[in-house]
Structures are given as structure tokens and as C-alpha cells.
Q: What sequence folds into this?
């Protein structure tokens, strides 16, 4: 157990669906606790969430121990902030396309989290260059995205395309732009559509080096079953299993990486 796990868990219990025990709420708390535990490990006075969506994570982050300011950035203001619980210290939100100029001074951010947003980018290079500019030397970028080398995807890729399409769920607003690799619609859906299926841990490591970072942590997380399957399980067993959702370094549905910004400017290293 990491020294910061207890603090992160206490934080999410207070701010992420407090009191709710259904599998989705518990899973969401586990997901955010994983991110926040990492964030709390090192300096985190100024923190930014990239692709903050409806603002739940940023709101929670604003109330973490040691935080000076927490800012959420998202291209979409319409979907953001609506219905987000408003308890504790308020965060700040900025509407901006993060594949352009980030609205922060060079070296001003200690830690940036980018949960489940990389797969939406048209021009990831623009984001990574900006992340390098605004993070201080040694500052961290904590990123999650679907794992292109998950065991489930590796199996689905070997099936006839039509079978794979039938097995992948796409119903509902939150899911209708998933799996572009399998449905061939990479450029639809505005900021909410997936442009790529995600990335592998090795691709991320290569990109880290390319954009002036070091990948200092890399693992996978996520579980193969949908909510209704978990509902059928007794709660203690369900929470025991859901609680171990990031134990495997390879093969699960999403990747979790931590990049540390190098001191050198990117241009001089590339030369
Ligand atoms: C799947 S949601 C993730 C929300 C939240 N981070 C989470 O983990 O629950 C992705 C978010 O990224 C935003 N997004 C996608 N592309 C973006 C871009 N280029 N600039 C800013 N926000 C973007 C979308 O509007 C959406 O709110």
C-alpha cells in the first residue's frame, strides 16, 4: 500500500458519490483514488485536470490535502459542471482546447492529471508540447487511457470484424463513439469521440522520451465485467475484487502512466 492511499481514499469517500455503494460508484471512487494517491506523493500545490468533463475529479482535487489551486480544463462547457456535487472548497474551470495553447505560465504547474482524454485527441503532440511548457521541471503528468494491448482487445482483433462489432457495446451517449478501430469512424463526435483506441505502455514510454518526459510508473487497470454482473455478487466480495483493479502491470482495459518532466528544453535534446 502506498503511503498516500489512505489520504486519497478518505478524499474520494467524502467527495465522489458519498455513501453510494453500487458497483459503479465504488469503481469510480477507486479510479479517482488511484490518480489522487499518485498526485499526493510529490509536490501538488498547483494541479490541473485536463479534460475535466463534468468536473467531479477537479472538485475533489480542490479539497485534497496540500492543494493551493485546482483547475479543470475542458473543450466542452455544456457538458461540464452540470449536476456536479458542490461541497467543500470550489475549484476553478477554464474552457479551452488543450491541443492548443494551455492558459498557464511556463513552469507554473506542479502536477497535471489527464484521465481518459488522450484517446480523444486529434493532435496529441500539441498537448504534450504544451504540458512540457507549463509543468515545472520535475513536475508530473499522470495519464490514463484505454489499453490497446488489453487481453480483451487482443482477442477481439483476432475475431472476424462483424463478430467483434457485435460484442462491443456502443449503446448510450457515453459509449456511442467508443472503439473507432473496430467501427472505422475515427473523426466523428467532437471532443467526445474517440480518435484512437488508446495506447500501449510502450507507446507511452516512447512518447514520454519524445516530448521531454521520463515515464516513471506504468501499469494497467480496469475490470472485464459490466455493472449488472457485479450487482449479482455479494457486496464484500464485490468490493474486495473491485478494490484490486490495478494490480496487474499488463493486460487490463486501461493504462496508467506517470511522466516526470525533464529539466532540459525539448528542442536541445532533439538536436
Ligand atoms: C471521457 S471524458 C473524461 C472526463 C474526466 N477526465 C474523467 O476521467 O471522468 C473526456 C473529456 O475530454 C474532453 N476533451 C476531449 N478533447 C479535448 C481537447 N482537445 N481539449 C479539451 N478537452 C477535451 C471532452 O470534452 C470530455 O469532457
A:
Amino acid at each position: 500500500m502506498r503511503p498516500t492511499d489512505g489520504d486519497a481514499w478518505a478524499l474520494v469517500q467524502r467527495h465522489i458519490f458519498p455513501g453510494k455503494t453500487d458497483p459503479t460508484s465504488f469503481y469510480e471512487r477507486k479510479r479517482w483514488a488511484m490518480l489522487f494517491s499518485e498526485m499526493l506523493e510529490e509536490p501538488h500545490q498547483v494541479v490541473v485536470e485536463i479534460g475535466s468533463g463534468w468536473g467531479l475529479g477537479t472538485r475533489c482535487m480542490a479539497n485534497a490535502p496540500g492543494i493551493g489551486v485546482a483547475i479543470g480544463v475542458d473543450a466542452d462547457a455544456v457538458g461540464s459542471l452540470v449536476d456536479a456535487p458542490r461541497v467543500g472548497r470550489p475549484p476553478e474551470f477554464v474552457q479551452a482546447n488543450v491541443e492548443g495553447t494551455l492558459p498557464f505560465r511556463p513552469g507554473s504547474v506542479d502536477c497535471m492529471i489527464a484521465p481518459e482524454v488522450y484517446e480523444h485527441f486529434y493532435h496529441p503532440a500539441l498537448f504534450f508540447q504544451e504540458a512540457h511548457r507549463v509543468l515545472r521541471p520535475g513536475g508530473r503528468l499522470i495519464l490514463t487511457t484505454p489499453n490497446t494491448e488489453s487481453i480483451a482487445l487482443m482477442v477481439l482483433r483476432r475475431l472476424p470484424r462483424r463478430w467483434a462489432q457485435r460484442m462491443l457495446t456502443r449503446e448510450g451517449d457515453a459509449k456511442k463513439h467508443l472503439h473507432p478501430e473496430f467501427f472505422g469512424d475515427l473523426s466523428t463526435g467532437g471532443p467526445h469521440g474517440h480518435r484512437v483506441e488508446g495506447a500501449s505502455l510502450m507507446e507511452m514510454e516512447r512518447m514520454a522520451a519524445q516530448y521531454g518526459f521520463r515515464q516513471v510508473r506504468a501499469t494497467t487497470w480496469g475490470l472485464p465485467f459490466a455493472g449488472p454482473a457485479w450487482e449479482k455478487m455479494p457486496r464484500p466480495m464485490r468490493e474486495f475484487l473491485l478494490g484490486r483493479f490495478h494490480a496487474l502491470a499488463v493486460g487490463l482495459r486501461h493504462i496508467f502512466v506517470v511522466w516526470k518532466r525533464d529539466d532540459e528544453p525539448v528542442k536541445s535534446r532533439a538536436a
User: Anything to note?
Assistant: The pocket of S-adenosylmethionine is lined by residues 51-53, 57, 74-76, 79, 97-99, 115-117, 120-121, 191-192 (CB under 6 Å). Strands lie at 46-50, 69-74, 92-95, 109-115, 135-146, 213-221, 254-261. The radius of gyration is 18 Å. The chain has a mean pLDDT of 88.
